[in-house]
Amino acid sequence: MHPEFEAVIGLEVHAQLSTQSKIFCGCRARLADGTSVADAAVNSNTCPVCAGHPGALPVLNRRVVEYALRAGLATNCRIRTTNVFARKNYFYPDLPKGYQLSQYEEPICEGGYLDVAVSETETKRVRLQRIHMEEDAGKSVHFPGYSLVNLNRAGVPLIEIVSAPDLSTPAEAGAYLRSLHAIVTALGICDGNMQEGNFRCDANVSVRPRGARELGTRTEIKNVNSFRFVEKAIEYEIARQIQLVKGGGKVVQETRTYDSDRNLTLSMRSKEEAEDYRYFPDPDLLPVLLEEAWIEEIRRGLPELPEQKKARFIRDFGIAPADAAILVGSRELADFCEATIAELSRSGMEPRAAGKPAANWLVGELRRLANEQGLEVSQSCLTPGHLADVVRLTQEQVISGQGAKTVIAEAWRTGETIASIVDAQGLRQVSDTGALVPAIDKVIAANPKQVAEFKAGKEKLLGFFVGQVMKETGGKANPALVGDLVRKRLK
Fold this sequence. Notes:
The protein has 15 helices and 16 strands.
């Protein structure tokens, strides 16, 4: 960050709710296989309500309200027991009514906060200004010289989660987004698939002289759909604004888009203010009246939240804080870890003994395979039972760490049992002293210079001897046992 300037960042997150039907009609909000309605045949998932036909009246989906309440309660918000839908008026081809049904002056949730771990030692409280319900628009598809509109997505329910301008670095913005993503997916209200736009972010960015109280002119970076791109877009925009101000120019309030290929932001249009949208309460929808008993019922039914799960993973399973943070950032990884520990516990291993190795493999090798292949762990053939077998065999020194990686990769691809892969690929470690001593003696005899140096005090050569024995045995020797035997033979 520039020593003379500081950034002020606020984020607006749109989370697509994972309800079965749309917010104001009975059309599907997702396909039967759980994928986006945008993937259905063009304009096949519409009705007079979501297509904006004159005279068609909206009916509010109760499950949308429930999901918005879950989000508000999980983020420490105040709940408005009377909240109102408003018309946000603007014209765009993918909005056939000429307005979007949203909430403005009286949203369902206000005044919450998240305590975000921005590093292993620092936590920052980020205030939430509001969470409100609204409908998604359709999608414009552009061709040379003309555009077409697909309304399958029109009316899919969203919540918009608006932070206060409490963030000051791209890293803090990324940490906040990851924390929020973990919460909405743990609540089961959003799939969180950023590539499909289920969870997308608008970033409001301004700069000001360091220590100043007055905010600078902000720009909005629209619809960024990955954590890394949000951080990079904000980083670029901060640098752009500082350079502009230092050169005597002025930042213009506008909406910009992020070009990830060129790593820069580009102007789209001047930024609208609230008055430009001419908000007014929707006359076709009554105010939403919430009973305290229902709110409390939803509060009691909230699942364990990511920060609670992280504390439990550290306390009960002995998992390192950094690994626990990665695991709880993905409901799928956290569930896989718990299922693996449960498998190991059934075979007699203590949870604290099982937790650390299970987490290590998940955070390391399994995440690497998932990232390389663009898959979730659940989309592979590997199961918690497979990983439990790998943990057992490595702890019993039946296979080496390198052998375990080979086994995991094969089970990931084929789903074959760990035992059959170990046997088929000859990965069992040799731990028979009688079988190892001849190989050790051969290596010692072939390397008299290194033997003399080791005996003279060059202890680090032990690794050299172990490596040579591993080569001699085709990688099948137990390296820990080889190290002990080499040391004894040489001394």
